[in-house]
Amino acid sequence: MALGHCVYLVRCADGSYYCGYARDPVARVRAHNSGKGSKILRGKLPVRLAYVRRFAGKGEALSLEAALKRRSHGEKRLLSQRWLKRAQNARSM
Question: Are 36 and 17 in contact (CB under 8 A)?
Fold first, then answer.
């Protein structure tokens, strides 16, 4: 995945979601799973990437991150399901 200003969701082993900002979300997920990411996730490992959105500017990305953190679990789950479905469809083309 190309670097940029990204907002990402990961799905935790307990079914919860975690939202964050990263320049490289794939590397960030690796860091989380190695125990070097957010301390709050250490008891919820492993995590899997469930959504990514890339932005040209950091400010836009941080605004979406803040908005996603306020969304309900159900809204995050729906967003993730849609993103994963699009990703699967893109790979099958």
Answer: no
pLDDT in tens, 2-58: 578 999 999 999 999 999 999 999 999 999 999 887 889 988 999 999 999 999 999
Q: Which domains does the chain have, with CATH numbers?
A: 5-92 (3.40.1440)
* pTM greater than the 0.85 cutoff: yes
